Predict the 3D structure of the following.
Amino acid sequence: MLTQESIQAFVADWYKKLDVHAPMVEVLPLLADAELECVFPEVTVYGYAGFESWYQRVIRTFFDEVHTVTKAEADIQGDTATVDVVVQWEASVWSAPDASSKRINADAYQTWSLKAGPDGSPILTKYVVDDFVPREGSATL
């Protein structure tokens, strides 16, 4: 059964894994393969294969990532939940032949859909980036 506590822990674990570029074997158990839809600013992906393609590109592009959750409010309806998430994302990016990397600092406004997995813990079924707002002084993507 989904609870506010289990969802808060899930959100924290999700971003910790993104920050450290966790291997896919650690990320896949958090996702619902057949139902998964992820709407990112640059692409929409489906299922494990689509997510892995996106994830592998991202972890090879950005480094020194820090995700700071500023909001994670869940509306739980039985074994599903809709979560309103706001995260401040900071990351460095280097593009050849630039002499140095650039720092991105932005707020991402997101809507997640979760369901209870077989053991009752949350599993991500839909991840939508609703808006992406660079902070003052941020490099552009």
